[in-house]
Automatic annotation (TrEMBL):
Keywords: Disulfide bond, Glycoprotein, Heparin-binding, Secreted, Sensory transduction, Signal, Wnt signaling pathway. This is RSPO2 protein. It comes from Mystacornis crossleyi. Belongs to the R-spondin family. The keyword Nucleotide-binding does not apply.
Amino acid sequence: MQFRLFSFALIILNCMDYGHCQPGRWKRSKRANYGPNPICKGCLSCSKDNGCIRCQHKLFFFLRREGMRQYGECLHSCPSGYYGLRTPDMNRCSRCRIENCDSCFSRDFCTKCKTGFYSHRGRCF
């Protein structure tokens, strides 16, 4: 009985809005909108820990990995080694599959090779 009461109390506390927290501490809310956070630029929805989850209509979603951590970003164009893939649901950056490719048009067609390599028919040699 005590375990059920304790579990119920935890659920209720978890669902409450923590408006009484100290100033400067993060306030829990149902909508994750962290406006001034630089990671969340261009996001439709954003997570404090994982960055962008959904991007504005014309931006590309890019999942940046740093060691074990990964977080989403919304970019106007994809970074080197990636290409923009547009779909009705979400635009995202996908990795080029061509070795030594600096920029690509699609998964299997390189438009610019890394320094020291030359491009021939979408491949880098």
